Amino acid sequence: MAAVSRPSRVAARWSDGGGLLVLLLVAGTLFAVGDHTFTQSVSSDVALYRHYASAALAPPVLHALPREYPAAALAAFLPGEAVPAHYALGFAVLAAFAVVLLVLSSDGLERHPGWSHRVCVYMIAGTVVVVFARYDIFPALAGFLAVEGARRGRWGRAWAWAAVGGLLKLFPFLLLPGFVLVERAHTGKWPVRRALAAGGAVGLFVLGQFVVAPASLLSPVSYEMRRGFELSSLPGSLTLLVDPLHVEWGMAFGSTEVVGGVHAVIAAVATVAMVLGLLFVWVLANKRRLPVEVVSLAVLSVVVLTNKAFAAQYLIWLVPFWAYWPMRRGWVAAAALTTLVYPLLYEEAHIWGPGFYLATAVAALRNVVLVVATVRWLAEQLRREGDRAIERSPDFETGPVQIAERPSVMAG
């Protein structure tokens, strides 16, 4: 069979998800820059991006760097200042371009038919309100390109994209331990030189930032350590569950936070859960020879679910990896509940007030749905890899009848 050309593959992806992509682009742009009920809340982050871009360009250039974001995030913030239009529109156009690149970027279309379609469905269900009003699409694109490189055995490209994504928003750095384990399983060697090269490049960037603005180096880490529980987060859900009669809500660190009487205990539990969850995934990757896309999605799921914040834009990190598998009802429901919480139920305090009981409760339901759906997905992957390991065993004998497994269009 002749190899499919790159233009043909891109055309096939456009045919697969083009209509939904256009809908996503139109709806996302309207939410990002339109005049509607939720304009102020949706665009508040964009106003912050513009502030950081203006501050970075003010003399002396680059001496005022973002407080809660890595310095490299300016690469996403600055282009909007150069567009001869409203900053929100310029940023939305840049984000839309990144979305188009994402939808057309997978080289695994033949192995994952319908991937582009599923990406658009998940985004429309869960992130259409924020996809063009948050910069998460840029590190998410870099993280996805990193995993795509790893899937094809192009490890240098995979590490490079993970480093780029990590410099933009830290979380793609957590893909690298999985890359190490999967590459060693395939090649039998530890990628020492690759790790040193990536570490050296990141180190040079960090050194440059320290020289230009030393106080900004650890600012994002300090910011994350001091923030409370955003009401949509799993720790926020636990706060409502264990102390429903004494919870309070307030604005802090750019989000609506929920505060209860056992904050320190829940924070400790969430931290331990994150560490144990990551170790569990990496141990599985080492022992069970899991595919890199399974390891990557599992790692990011642990990080998202145990984080102090679980804003709607965090789904953008997960969506490209969800789409590797047939559509799952649990993931679609989690995406839809995310949109229900933000922005719709965020208006609760203004309508019924005070407090965000309903928004926090529905977010808790979203978190339960997402945990159950992801655990079920991981169990399926482990069973599948176990079956493959048995088939690879020299003692395995193929029986006279083999039944082909046909994945359903909508998994549980």
Description:
65% of the residues lie in helices and 4% in strands. It has 412 residues and is mainly alpha-helical. The protein folds into two domains: 1-214, no CATH class; 227-389 and 407-412. The strands form two sheets. A three-stranded antiparallel beta sheet has the order 1-3-2, with helices on one face. A two-stranded parallel ribbon has the order 4-5. β2 (248-252) and β3 (255-259) form a beta hairpin. α5 (87-103) packs parallel to α7 (137-151) and α12 crosses α13. The model is unreliable at 35-42 and 396-409 (pLDDT under 50).
Number of DSSP-assigned strands: 5
Major sheet: arrangement of strands: 1-3-2
- Rg (CA only): 22 Å
Cα-to-Cα separation, first versus last residue = 35 Å
N-to-C SSE string, H for helix and E for strand: HHHHHHHHHHHEHEEHHHEHHHE
- Mean pLDDT score: 85
Taken from the alpha-carbon principal axes, the silhouette is: globular
What ranges have pLDDT less than 50 throughout 5 or more consecutive residues? 35-42, 396-409
Helix count, per DSSP? 18
Structural class: mainly alpha
Main sheet properties:
3 strands, antiparallel
Q: Please give the domain count.
A: 2
Estimate percent helicity. Answer: 55-70%
Percent of sequence in beta strands: under 5%
Give the topology.
Layout: H1 6-33, H2 39-57, H3 74-77, H4 79-82, H5 87-103, H6 115-126, H7 137-151, H8 155-169, H9 176-187, H10 192-212, H11 219-226, E1 229-230, H12 234-242, E2 248-252, E3 255-259, H13 263-288, H14 292-306, H15 315-322, E4 327-328, H16 329-344, H17 348-351, H18 357-392, E5 410-411
Parallel strand pairs: 4-5
Antiparallel strand pairs: 1-3, 2-3
Helix pairs in contact: 1-5, 1-6, 5-7, 6-15, 6-16, 7-8, 7-15, 8-10, 12-13, 12-18, 13-14, 14-15, 14-18, 16-18
